[in-house]
Amino acid sequence: MQKIHVKPDGNWMNDPNGFIYYKNQYHLFYQCFPYDARWGRMHWAHVVSNDLVSWEHQGIAIFPSKMDDRDGCFSGSAIEDDGKMYLYYTGVRYLKENPEDINLCLDEQFISAQMMMISEDGYHFDNIKNKRTIIPVSENSKVADARHTRDPKVWKDGDAWYMVLGSTINDRQGKLLFFKSTDKENWTYENSTTKENGFGWMWECPDYFEVDGNQILVFSPMGFYKDGKSYENQSICMQVNFEKETCHMDIPDTYQYLDYGLDLYAPQTTVDEEGRRVLLAWLRMPAPVHGQWSGMQCIPRVVEVKNKHIYFRVHPNIKNAFTKKISSPNEADENGYKVSFALEDGESIDVGGFQIMRKGNRVYTDRSGLLDETWDMQTEFSTPDLRDGSQIDVYVDPNLIEVFINDGEYVISNCIYNLGKEIHNAKNVKYEIYTLHETDV
Q: Which residues, 6+ apart, have CB-to-CB distance to 28 below 8 Å?
């Protein structure tokens, strides 16, 4: 059983999918290629948790089995109705396979359809009998691109079911598509929205939801961030205006990054047992760990809005797990530890070779000593100006450090390798270290 961070048993992991609190348990599915630690013909793996802290692997839930998903089961979401679990995802069929590696296509020659699977209990999935296409491949480029239309997120509002899909306009401008249904199986196209001038060429993994009356959109525009070293595809969030009667959405010019470490991608949210909006996202990794596995999920984060700013706070269950005080990282359990401190202007701290510093009203991180320099990746990151406060909580895993500033005002999450076991404190910053309490070990 895994603790804190969901990682693959082996091989490849990417996007979180089908995240749902269902029949008193949390179910998470994720994109996987179960044969090697690299991207390939996508399947859905499945993990289950009672508390978002401990996770148990359940194996493969969805795999290619129909003509429309024979070359991959891309991302999607889950809902519950009448006690059943409904999984929605994008099926992919290659028009031309790579003859040297049939798990890949040539020159992006593929088409996409939207599919659905029903499970009676959330544990058993019949990929032959209980799977079908609900929105076929589009041949009308004015509505949906035949290739790049994917990642259905489904929710209910009143008596209707809604679906948002990510798409593109001629591979140049991102676009969202909105569909509506009364029975979860037959869907009618309602509307679309887009944004010009620099919002990327394709919008992946859209997620729309409300938090305390605030309408929030999270999505992952491709080709959005271009500095030559960071991932071009990034995840952003913003407050929007959405009219459910017409499915019209107004997207503002202003946005926040989901995470200012720029390594997280393809987030997805659900509602937990207390009604909180909880988010997970995939950590992109430049190389497999020990050559065996690649990719993991971040700590579950609660989404809140305060003074028109979107916060991503550590879920209370995770906070409550890290309550055993220790004096050194060497005493930590294998699932990592938390370091808490306040950081004022000019102060810094080194956590196992990972640098965290405060300069003026911003927090900076530097992972240059924990990456292979031949990867030519960005190593230094910073928050925007902080509103107030100096509290920092750092959650440390051997391959992921998550720096939460002022209880989620901003977060910097960075992929790392070869983490050291010492905390160096040149500026005499007072800090405390915690690991999992006994019942969670």
A: 6, 16, 17, 18, 19, 46, 47, 48, 49, 55, 280, 297
